[in-house]
Design the sequence.
């Protein structure tokens, strides 16, 4: 899977952003842990990642105060505006552990990241930032779908007053809204992935920001709604909704928050008009 974007002649699958988005969506829906987005997007410049020889995590330079999964990784990649640097994760060994929103996403607080070896220039930095945004949006779409699936299954099984709670109008409306949010975000995400593959289809940066904004809103709101549909059990450790919600909180802050992407879209709209 980590070789999705690596050319066939380089030992990878030679897939494009659309295929990668489909895979990452499924990983999100099944709450697969680990820095999977960073593994996929860095494999073309770090061949050992696709082979499974090293475990890599990373962060954008402006988000590098917290590094996820660093304690279990071999290499940390930092994407700056004009370059990509990599350094051994062991250099963060003494950094304090953080308290992440998602219990499946351990993190450390490193403040300013160490200086590493330059493994990519401006083009690679732009590519990592762009593809990371699109594929993080894909994982958020998967989270939105997973929360919807859990809530819908429970609504069909849980009975109250002799009938499934899914037959109540209020619950129907919540599930219908979850479905609409998911499909809207999925459409935006697949469109952004297609434009990332061929920018003749539209503005790549605007498409990626749209996908990240809609997918983040869908995942967080669907996670909250799933907790509500399951009632008192929804936030317990034994149930999945709170995992979907907490993972959505984490991914919302990766590769630019929804607020940052909304501002970028607003600036672009102002210049366009």
Sequence:
């Amino acid at each position: 899977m980590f070789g999705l974007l690596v050319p066939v002649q380089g030992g990878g699958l030679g897939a494009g952003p659309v295929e990668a988005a489909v895979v990452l969506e499924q990983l999100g829906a099944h709450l697969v842990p680990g820095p999977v987005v960073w593994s996929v997007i860095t494999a073309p410049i770090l061949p050992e990642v696709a082979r499974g020889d090293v475990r890599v995590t990373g962060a954008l330079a402006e988000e590098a105060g917290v590094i996820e999964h660093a304690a279990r990784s071999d290499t940390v990649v930092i994407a700056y505006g004009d370059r990509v640097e990599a350094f051994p994760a062991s250099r963060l060994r003494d950094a304090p552990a953080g308290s992440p929103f998602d219990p499946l996403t351990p993190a450390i607080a490193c403040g300013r990241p160490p200086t590493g070896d330059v493994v990519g220039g401006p083009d690679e930095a732009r590519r990592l930032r762009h593809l990371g945004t699109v594929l993080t949006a894909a994982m958020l779409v998967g989270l939105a779908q997973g929360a919807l699936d859990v809530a819908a299954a429970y609504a069909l099984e849980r009975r109250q007053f002799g009938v499934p709670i899914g037959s109540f109008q209020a619950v129907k409306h919540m599930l219908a809204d979850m479905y609409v949010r998911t499909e809207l975000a999925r459409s935006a995400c697949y469109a952004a992935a297609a434009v990332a593959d061929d920018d003749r289809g539209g503005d790549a940066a605007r498409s990626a920001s749209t996908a990240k904004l809609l997918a983040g809103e869908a995942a967080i709101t669907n996670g909250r709604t799933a907790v509500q549909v399951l009632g008192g059990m929804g936030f317990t450790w034994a149930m999945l909704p709170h995992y979907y919600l907490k993972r959505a909180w984490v991914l919302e802050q990766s590769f630019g928050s929804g607020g940052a992407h909304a501002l970028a879209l607003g600036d672009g709209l102002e210049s366009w008009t």
The domain at 124-261 is CATH 1.20.140.10 (Butyryl-CoA Dehydrogenase, subunit A; domain 3).
